[in-house]
Amino acid sequence: MAEAEAMTKSGATLSLSDLRGSSSRRRKEGAIRAIFLTAAGISVVISALIITSLVGEALKFLSQVDLGGLWQRGWFPRRGLFDIKTIVVGTMLVSAIAMIVAAPLGLGAAIYLSEYASPRLRRVLKPILEILAGIPSVVMGFFALTFISPVLVQKLTSGATLFNMAAAGIGVGILVTPLVASIAEDAMHAVPRSMREAAYGLGSKRMTTSLRIVFPAAVSGIVAALILGISRAIGETMVVAIAAGGTGGSLFTTNVFGPGQTMTAAMTALASGSDQVSGNTAAFNSLFFVGLLLFFITLSLNLVSDRFVRRVRRRY
Predict the structure, then answer these.
(1) What is the pLDDT of residue 29?
(2) Is the separation of the CB atoms in 114 and 214 below 8 Å?
(3) Domain coverage including residue 55
């Protein structure tokens, strides 16, 4: 660049090669670009290989069972009962309970950290809140089994069993809360300060400003946080495997105060302790079918989230 400035001052013309910089700099930038391209390509290849393996084994499973057998009275794969609605409905019930817990707690924490807490208190509380996300799910599973179920669920509902989907859903909700709170708080904190000052200048109270100005302005990030929370709840395994009770299988039920089964817990219970699932010949391949179904559900949620965020996102 010094040579280019000197040539400009002397009145000489500059060529395109002069503006491209030194050859060593171009080589370094090219190497860095190649590294990043390789990393991106490897991630795409790995994703494609995972999907390919799931699709192949899922098609093999469908060829081994009657399609009418996917709509029976329960999920007992070792016995040849592959009722998909049992684990899908169980997954939706546990996820719904989890979001009933996580949405108000997470959004409430986000509003407090963004609008009410002082900067010093926010720097202290937010890392503490995010530590909850690092709690191992197996620990939360035992907490749900030994505390949430007997102390909360069974005392509130006399007919509840020790292993129940309600306790599992509450445990999953506790794990999801930090994720929802952190992302929603980041979205609300990014709203320009001028919007708050304008609301205060018009006489608005802090709660009115938070709920009617900041919250709508950050709605794209808040919705993304909730959808990510739902995806996290759907994909949770150990809490449900420990607390829900459907280890060997489950009959179809919508009673959240009794044992049930989810897709992730069904895969864990079926594949645990063996590299080849015993029982019905199609049991092993059902793992891949359930995994593929779970993949499409989470993919659909991510696509819906991305489309919604693009539609309602506001630029400031």
Answers:
(1) 86
(2) yes
(3) 14-64
Query: Same domain for 50 and 81?
Result: no
Q: Is residue 113 part of a domain?
A: yes
In 3D space, the residue among 22, 86, 18 whose CA is nearest the CA of residue 244 turns out to be: 86
Q: Are 229 and 99 in contact (CB under 8 A)?
A: yes
Residues 30 and 127 in one domain: no
- Write out pLDDT tens, residues 162-217: 889 999 999 999 999 999 998 999 888 888 888 888 888 888 888 888 888 888 88
3-state secondary structure of 197: helix
The position carrying tokens 């950290």 is 113
- Tell me the whole-structure pTM to 2 decimals: 0.82
238 CB-near residues (< 8 Å, 6+ apart): 136, 137, 138, 140, 141, 268
Write out pLDDT tens, residues 240-263. Answer: 988 887 677 788 888 889 888 888
Q: Give yes or no: residues 237 and 95 share one domain.
A: yes
Domain containing 138 — which CATH number?
1.10.3720.10
